[in-house]
Backbone:
């Protein structure tokens, strides 16, 4: 693999007045000062510092709820304070299950006992750690079951349709599925819904092992012993502490009884390596499934005919454990009650160099850069906050509990939430609110890929779930972004395993941390620009184009079904208002820094409309059957998990064949768009008053 020295920084082009377009939300008069500070910020992020944070943080396993996770939080807190930031830890208590018993054995036609562990690999010092976290799925049910084994491919709805079509019943059986094809938590949920007694999830080498490339430690991909841990809590209903849905899990808070919690798995679930899966899969007989069901285990794949019996025993300690969110703040000099927040989680399944420490270490460098700027005399107009969340791996718990605790204040004050998670090398991944798409484009054109020397290649994607933006975007209606670099570099090969280590990252990913530096710079620029803009930098034409596309997609799902006429009319009105807003914005731009009392009041009114804009995308009653998710435009699918469903109320009703519900959801979405149109028109009037 080609390697780059630590001197391969971002290309910094000195700014010349009048040489480039305005930064969104800044008047021409404010550009010179903003560019002066941005030019300094670009030079501050240091790849070697990011490497140092990762090396320190990944030295020990630090599963949420353990003393090591607390140590990580205290380390980050100490750094934040050292850099001059006002920082503190917010503590929550949450249900964080750990296993007390894990057993998997084949009882017929042969005897075999799975080892259920990840042995050390040569060259990787942390793989020898004696405190390695067991291979398990959090929120598995407890149980001891012996039953015939059935192979169900990825364990997704279409797979069960295939089994039913061929008269293969999983009721009373143990299902084995492979990772991929959909979120892991859906696999045991669907297995249980079809009557299975237990569920095994293994990593097939076709998906992330030797079929893709050399395996670890020779290459980046998953070796025969690698296991993907992960939570199987039903986050399609709600994330966060399963025992406190909708309210913060603070010490002493009311908690549901375990019997009342709807998101826990009822059957035992266990993740296994393909080394442990192969002896089981080799013995299966019966029907040979279609080609798309066949992995790369070097055997003929069979669905099973009842001849293979396995015993699966899982016992869980469903204990309550503390979580530690680290929150830092740089107060705004003019608009202190308007906030922008950047976050990444710090907890990991084991050592977590890629997930999450690549992103967490990068965010720490963002915090250090902002602290340096402060010491040089820079002060943001709005308050900037940095958060390192705990408990993300269990179900976005730290961020969700924080959002639920501070919901009222966040709804009043938070302009935008900027999330990162894992980051590597290659293409810039960007997902989020389309109201921020033009804003992101303005930042990306001002940075350079550290390898190509050109602006990063990117496109804005809609967000489903799977990281800490979920509560901010889909529950509170706060404009959000999720940013990170990555390509098909093999990070899936060590995902949630003990081999996600500093050694792996520095040999197979962003080996010299130059992409981490680039992400840190992008995040710094995003925070500086939102915090410093006279006018909050939202834009609406990209949103209306996305809405039109989403409506077209739904129309293609149905033949003469639910009418979308009202929705399309509302989109058309919104498109016209979006264009009108751009005209008013262009006329107001030179006057954004005027300071008469009337002009200040008009600008404040415009900013209030913009700050609250995404809040009006929320449905008061939430989505059908899962009211925690309230966003009318973006949501994780109830049968996709992490994968996004756009215009979700309508789309999922159409997909499920519920025309009356689809019609009602179309009416509600139309009302949302009408309200958004009112908000844009109000902002236009305020801008025209400048």
Residues:
């Amino acid at each position: 693999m080609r390697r780059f020295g630590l001197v391969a920084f971002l290309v910094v082009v000195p700014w010349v007045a009048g040489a480039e377009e305005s930064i969104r939300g800044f008047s021409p008069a404010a550009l010179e000062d903003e560019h002066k500070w941005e030019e300094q910020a670009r030079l501050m992020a240091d790849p070697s510092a990011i490497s140092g944070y990762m090396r320190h943080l990944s030295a020990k396993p630090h599963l949420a709820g353990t003393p090591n996770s607390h140590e990580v939080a205290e380390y980050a807190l100490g750094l934040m304070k050292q850099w001059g930031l006002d920082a503190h830890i917010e503590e929550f208590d949450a249900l964080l299950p750990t296993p007390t018993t894990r057993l998997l054995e084949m009882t017929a036609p042969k005897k075999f006992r799975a080892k259920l562990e990840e042995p050390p690999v040569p060259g990787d010092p942390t793989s020898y750690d004696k405190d390695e976290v067991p291979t398990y799925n959090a929120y598995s049910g407890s149980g001891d079951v012996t039953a015939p084994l059935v192979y169900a491919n990825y364990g997704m709805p279409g797979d069960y349709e295939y089994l039913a079509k061929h008269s293969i019943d999983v009721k009373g059986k143990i299902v084995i599925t492979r990772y991929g094809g959909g979120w892991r938590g859906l696999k045991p949920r669907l297995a249980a819904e079809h009557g299975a007694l237990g569920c095994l999830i293994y990593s097939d080498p076709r998906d992330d092992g030797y079929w893709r490339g050399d395996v670890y430690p020779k290459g980046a991909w998953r070796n025969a012993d690698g296991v993907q841990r992960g939570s199987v809590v039903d986050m399609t209903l709600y994330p966060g502490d399963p025992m406190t849905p909708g309210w913060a899990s603070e010490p002493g808070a009311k908690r549901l009884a375990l019997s009342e919690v709807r998101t826990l798995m009822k059957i035992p679930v266990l993740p296994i390596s393909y080394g442990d899966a192969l002896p089981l899969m080799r013995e299966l007989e019966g029907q040979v499934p279609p080609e798309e069901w066949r992995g790369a285990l070097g055997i003929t794949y069979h669905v099973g005919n009842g001849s293979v019996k396995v015993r699966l025993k899982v016992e869980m300690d469903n204990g309550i454990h503390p979580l530690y969110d680290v929150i830092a703040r740089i107060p705004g000099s003019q608009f202190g009650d308007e906030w922008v927040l950047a976050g990444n989680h710090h907890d990991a399944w084991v050592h977590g160099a890629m997930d999450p420490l690549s992103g967490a270490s990068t965010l720490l460098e963002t915090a250090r850069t902002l602290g340096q700027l402060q010491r040089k005399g820079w002060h943001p107009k709005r308050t900037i906050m940095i958060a390192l969340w705990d408990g993300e791996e269990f179900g976005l718990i730290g961020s969700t509990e924080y959002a639920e605790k501070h919901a009222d204040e966040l709804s009043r004050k938070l302009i935008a939430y900027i999330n990162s998670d894992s980051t590597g090398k290659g293409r810039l991944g960007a997902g989020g609110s389309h109201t921020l798409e033009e804003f992101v484009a303005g930042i990306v054109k001002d940075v350079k890929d550290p390898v190509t020397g050109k602006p990063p290649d990117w496109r804005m994607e809609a967000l489903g779930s799977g990281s800490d933006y979920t509560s901010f975007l889909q529950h509170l209606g706060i404009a959000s972004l999720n940013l990170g670099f990555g390509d098909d570099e093999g990070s899936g090969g060590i995902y949630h395993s003990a081999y996600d280590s500093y050694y792996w990252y520095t040999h197979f990913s962003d080996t010299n941390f130059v992409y981490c530096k680039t992400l840190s710079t992008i995040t710094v620029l995003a925070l500086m620009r939102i915090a410093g803009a006279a006018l909050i930098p939202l834009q609406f034409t990209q949103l209306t184009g996305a809405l039109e596309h989403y409506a077209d997609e739904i129309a293609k799902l149905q033949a003469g079904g639910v009418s979308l006429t009202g929705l399309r009319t509302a989109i058309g009105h919104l498109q016209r208002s979006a264009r009108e807003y751009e005209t008013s914005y262009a006329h107001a731009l030179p006057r954004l820094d005027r300071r008469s009392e009337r002009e200040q009041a008009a600008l404040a009114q415009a900013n209030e409309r913009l700050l609250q804009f995404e809040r009006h995308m929320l449905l008061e009653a939430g989505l059908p059957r899962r009211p925690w998710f309230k966003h009318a435009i973006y949501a994780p699918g109830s049968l996709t998990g992490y994968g996004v469903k756009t215009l979700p109320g309508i789309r999922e009703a159409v997909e499920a064949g519920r025309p009356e519900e689809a019609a009602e959801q179309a009416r509600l979405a139309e009302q949302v768009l009408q309200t958004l149109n009112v908000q844009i028109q109000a902002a236009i009037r305020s801008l025209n008053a400048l």
User: Anything to note?
Assistant: The first strand starts at residue 86 and ends at 95. The chain has three domains: 28-95+321-532, 98-318, 541-688. Residues 128 and 357 are 19 Å apart (CA to CA). Confidence is low (pLDDT under 50) at residues 1-20.
